[in-house]
Design a protein that fits this description.
eight-stranded parallel barrel, single chain, globular, TIM Barrel, binds 2-phosphoglycolic acid, about 250 residues, alpha/beta
């Protein structure tokens, strides 16, 4: 399966840094033809999305780097929802992907899986591809309930409109995010196999969805992760802000 490498910039950077990183990334991606065999996406913070979209249009690798957002409204496409940004707006400015249900949003904003399902429905209505994040906390892994936790998140977060074309799953063990700890290859393999089985058995339309791994992915561990069955790419946080790291992760996916 063609891999997807998605960079989640989170709440980092500035206008100048976004332009500098994107200009340099797109130049190297074009020079090495990295977008030919891999799908690449960057997800900057909301204020830099339009500017990034415009910048990408003027750059050589415009077709190779897709834009994604880090969230969207659960309330609709337009209306009196102060502070919200709708999926339709993201689509309108050129986004192709939106990350939904990230553990930081589930944790800091009490987002429930049912709320995430509504966001995914709205994202699909707007023509976006949703990257749904699932994963267990350290306490859940210690209690050996990681499988039931992830299956419950999948069951509740995926709306009926989802298909292999418009849904990507990102397995991100919460304890591995931003900590430098990566899950053991055997644990990644087991969880990705479980997710694939769930999709095949319960959600046939999503049986071919890509399953990304996320959580302290870096240049040093990317190759090993990509060799694991059912690992169809990565959702990269911290390392996506470092040009050399992000490029090496993309190269490891070829
Ligand atoms: P990290 O973040 O790569 O910095 O661990 C991954 C994520 O939160 O998507």
């Amino acid at each position: 399966m063609r891999k997807l490498i998605a960079g989640n910039w989170k709440m980092n950077g500035s206008h100048a840094q976004a332009v500098a990183l994107l200009t340099s990334l797109s130049q190297k991606i074009a020079d090495e033809n990295l977008g030919e065999k891999t799908d690449i996406c960057v997800c900057p913070p909301f204020p830099y999305l339009s500017l990034t979209a415009e910048k990408l249009e003027t750059l050589k690798a415009a077709q190779s780097i897709a834009l994604g957002a880090q969230d969207c409204s659960a309330w609709g496409q337009q209306g009196a929802f102060t502070g919200d940004v709708s999926a339709a707006m993201l689509s309108d400015i050129g986004c192709r992907y939106v990350i939904l249900g990230h553990s930081e949003r589930r944790g800091y904003y009490n987002e429930s899986s049912l709320g995430v399902a509504e966001k995914i429905r709205l994202a699909h209505e707007a023509g976006l591809i949703a990257i749904l994040c699932v994963g267990e906390t350290q306490a859940e892994r210690d209690a050996c309930v990681q499988d039931s936790t992830v299956v419950a998140q999948l069951r509740e977060s995926i709306p009926p409109c989802a298909s292999s074309e418009n849904l990507v799953i990102a397995y991100e063990p919460v304890w591995a995010i931003g900590t430098g700890k990566t899950a053991k290859p055997a644990d990644v393999e087991a969880m990705h196999a479980l997710i694939r089985r769930f999709l095949q058995e319960k959600l046939d339309k999503c049986a071919g969805s890509r399953i990304l791994y996320g959580g302290s992915v870096k240049a040093e561990n990317a190759r090993e992760l990509f060799a694991i069955a059912n690992v169809d790419g990565a959702l990269v946080g911290g390392a996506s802000l470092k040009e050399d790291q992000f490029l090496d992760i993309i190269r490891a996916a070829l």
